[in-house]
Amino acid sequence: MKRQAVAFSLLALLALAPFASTAEQDEDGFPKQWQEIGVQFPSPPASDALIPLYVSAATANHFYIDGPSLSLGADQVIRYVLVVETPSGVRNVTFEGMRCESKSRRIYASGRPDGTWSKARHSDWVRISDAYANRQHAVLFLEYFCPFGNPVRTADEARNALVRGGHPDVRR
Q: Does residue 112 belong to any structural domain of this protein?
């Protein structure tokens, strides 16, 4: 009986082998630990390069992504500059990254009025949540950068999704 269970387990493993992860592996065959690449801060955003981002009717803020800042690193992190303008004219600029695999994001730096960057003091990866009023990161994840949890293949694909108002793979 024990032999049959072992044989069945081996057959099940062999049947699942084609569906195994295609992530890079170390010399022992285990998935390699993810490692973030070095990051360079982009140029400050130019008003004529900002792509509007609809977030929700629950907020009066206006959201934009700086098109030229969009990049997809070898580490599969989508990096971008997010600009948030309040109805009173206050403007917040952040340089951020998003990981589709872990559904997480981080802020690398905040933009200063003179166009320079101030490195973020707390720049840990945090889980993306879909809060009703403050959901810009959830919208970027779900509708633009990570359709069905998979990262876009290129920065141009992400930029085109923003210009179109959503990724073509996401059903509206």
A: yes
CA proximity to 80, closest of 90, 91, 72, 69:
69
Partnered with residue 40 across adjacent β-strands are: none
| Helices of type H across 61-154 | 136-139
Decide if 100 contacts 76 (C-beta within 8 A): yes
Q: Given this model, what pLDDT does residue 25 score?
A: 59
Q: Would you say residue 18 lies in a domain?
A: no
pLDDT, tens digit (0-9, with 9 covering 90-100), for 135-159: 999 999 999 999 888 899 999 999 9
Q: What 3-state class would DSSP assign to 137?
A: helix
CATH number, domain containing residue 65: 2.40.128
Geometric angle at alpha carbon 133, from 123 and 116, rounded to 5°: 35
Half-sphere exposure of 65 (CA within 13 A, CB side): 27
